[in-house]
Input
Amino acid sequence: MNNQAITRALIDLLCFLEFTGDELLDPDVAVSQMEQVAATLRSGGDLAVHAFCQACEEYASAIERTKAERSEFLRSLPEAMGLV
Output
């Protein structure tokens, strides 16, 4: 598996945490996991953070016409995670 596939899988997981309803996933658990992902990305250094932010933007652009809400989420995700 290449880094691009790993990054895409991570983005899909973060979307799952954000968009899964409270009846299926405890919101506190989702937030905790998102915070853990952010901490792990930060520990990877500037290159890891930059690659993740770039991947979020690229994926957001690719889906903006069909999944506007998810696209908006992805564009705001790096800042919401404290990465920028």
The mean pLDDT is 94. The two ends are 27 Å apart (CA to CA).
